[in-house]
């Protein structure tokens, strides 16, 4: 079976990537062909599929936007726009799917970097998707249901609580953008795809 694995980093950075590389190794040991798709960072592990990886906005060596200094205002606008839908990601993934013809897509973390364009692309190409939730980012703005020293599940009732409580980096603007991203994700019925 050809298994497309999608994650926004293709280098060892934390627990999700350790799991990513472990599962890739396990699948390959069972005779499956694994096809990675990610963004093109300098730290990436070499892959014959990296030609399909789109360039990230901003630094190619720094994954976190908050760690990048002096992001140009136009790049800030592009970061927000691409968080909603990244057409470069769609095009790169579409080319990869058409050339490699995977049987299934296993999606790890995509939120805020690859965007829901990966789900739309797989859907358009009739590739079934398995979505692995490493955190609660699709239902909780802080990703962990924990705020101000206690458990918080207010976003289960309404995602607006993440914006009202400045749950993203204690920032009103970032929290509002994240709220809008979540609303867009659910209103466009991405989970149905």
Summarize, please.
By secondary structure, the chain is an alpha/beta fold.
Main β-sheet description: 4 strands, parallel
Q: Please indicate the percent range of residues in DSSP E strands (runs of 2 or more).
A: 5-15%
Average pLDDT works out at 87
Neighbour order of strands in the largest sheet = 2-1-3-4
Task: Label the structural class.
Answer: alpha/beta
Order of helices and strands: EHEHHEHEEEHHH
Number of contiguous helices:
7
The low-confidence runs, each spanning 5 or more residues with pLDDT under 50, are: 63-68
In angstroms, what is the radius of gyration?
A: 17 Å
The helix content, as a percent range, equals: 25-40%
N/C terminus separation: 21 Å
Principal-axes geometry comes out as globular
Number of strands: 6
Describe the protein's architecture and organization:
This protein has 193 residues and is an alpha/beta fold. It is built from 7 helices and 6 strands; from the N terminus they run E-H-E-H-H-E-H-E-E-E-H-H-H. Helix 3 (87-100) runs parallel beside helix 4 (117-124). The longest helix is centred in the C-terminal third of the chain and has 16 residues, at 172-187. Residues 63-68 have low confidence and may be disordered.
Defining traits:
single chain, 193 residues, alpha/beta, two-stranded antiparallel sheet
């Amino acid at each position: 079976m050809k298994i497309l694995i999608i994650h926004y980093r293709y280098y060892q950075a934390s627990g999700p990537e350790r799991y990513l590389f472990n599962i890739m190794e396990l699948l390959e040991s069972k005779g499956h062909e694994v096809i990675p798709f990610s963004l093109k960072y300098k730290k990436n592990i070499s892959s014959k599929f990296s030609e399909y990886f789109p360039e990230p906005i901003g630094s190619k060596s720094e994954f976190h936007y908050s760690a990048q200094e002096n992001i140009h205002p136009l790049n800030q606008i592009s970061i927000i726009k691409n968080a909603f839908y990244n057409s470069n990601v769609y095009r790169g993934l579409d080319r990869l799917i058409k050339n490699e013809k995977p049987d299934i897509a296993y999606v790890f973390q995509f939120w805020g970097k690859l965007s829901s364009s990966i789900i739309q692309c797989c859907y358009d190409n009739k590739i079934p998707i398995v979505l692995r939730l490493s955190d609660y980012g699709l239902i909780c703005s802080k990703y962990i249901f924990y705020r101000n020293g206690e458990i918080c599940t207010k976003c289960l009732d309404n995602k607006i609580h993440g914006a009202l409580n400045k749950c993203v980096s204690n920032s009103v603007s970032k929290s509002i953008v994240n709220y809008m991203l979540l609303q867009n994700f659910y209103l466009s019925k991405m989970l149905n795809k």
